[in-house]
Amino acid sequence: MTKKIILASGSPFRSRMLEDAGIAFTVERPSIDERAVEEAVADTGLRPDDLAQILAEAKAVDVSQNHPGAFVIGCDQTLSLGEELLHKPADMEEARRRLLKLSGRTHQLNSAVVIAQDGEAIWRHVQVASLTMRDLDPGFIGRHLSAVGDAALSSVGAYQIEGKGIQLFDQVEGDHFTIVGLPLLPLLAKLRELGAIDG
Question: pTM for the whole thing?
């Protein structure tokens, strides 16, 4: 008998990926303070992919404590530009500056997924994608942000590559699902192995 699957994320993009894959699940947002978790490990020399995994695990474990036996999926994504770790822009001006900073450069999206059960992580996985933005004209950036509106504030890069954001790029190396924020194929393989979905 399959067990309950819970997505510990409020991301509509992650929910859509699981829905499109035909997975039956419910959603429960975790109650952790992501910035507090980051601050706790800030000076430990963690790589951005390690941080994504720590945050994904914290979310999955938090929600799984309230749902005995359920498989809880936690996800997180960090964006690294060289040694710099970037967060979601707070407003449109910060989104404009973010795109100017990424213009003509290659950055990494580090996407982590963790499955927790009964308050413990039972599986962890991280995938990294490299994305190179084309040289962006400041006027184009302004027009692009005007076209996409507040959606630019919902991602660390101030873009959605699955929409108009694809026009910002010269080159993309990596799995589409990883870029959107959930390494879906490894997750599905693990859920089949655990007997959580038909396989």
Answer: 0.90
